Amino acid sequence: MPTPLHIGARLKHIRRQQGLTLKQIEIKSRGKWKAVVIGSYERGTRSLSVAKAEELASFYGVPLSAFFTDREQNSEQSLSHGLTFDLRKLRQSLATPDEFSSQVYGLLNWIAFKREDWNGELLSLRTGDIDTLMILTKKNEVELAEALKNRDLRFTTQGRV
Questions:
Q1: What is the DSSP string of 26-63?
Q2: Which of the ends of the chain has fewer CB neighbours closer than 10 A, N or C?
Q3: Which CATH class, in words, describes the domain spanning 4-67?
Q4: Predicted TM-score (pTM) of this structure
């Protein structure tokens, strides 16, 4: 369960992503959200009710869940720290192909070609590549991580994930 400090850190992260200072929040909201109040929420020194959290999420234009989730908190499922594929294992999976594996294989071949990366064993994806893979497979980050895990396609230095 997220703590007030965790929620505060998420609030601050979202505000900064939008390029806003505390004072700009107050101005943009026409005084509805006072800088001192938002600062207190961000420091975790003031409780944020569910109703206020919903209003603030609407103001920021983010889902309410954005205040409570953290990519690093779910690091087993998270792809934010990169993704490395075992190309040998992927080629073996094509013996009994499914649409997902074929899509992954096609994208990885294209990336290897563009990078002129011919080692044929491992291929690391960059953040933009992961985004492209999510679009191609029509899966969000968690679904993509789960699909790769189920097919034993991810590779880490500790072994497969």
A1: HHHTTTSS-HHHHHHHHHT-S---HHHHHHHHHHHTS-
A2: N
A3: mainly alpha
A4: 0.48
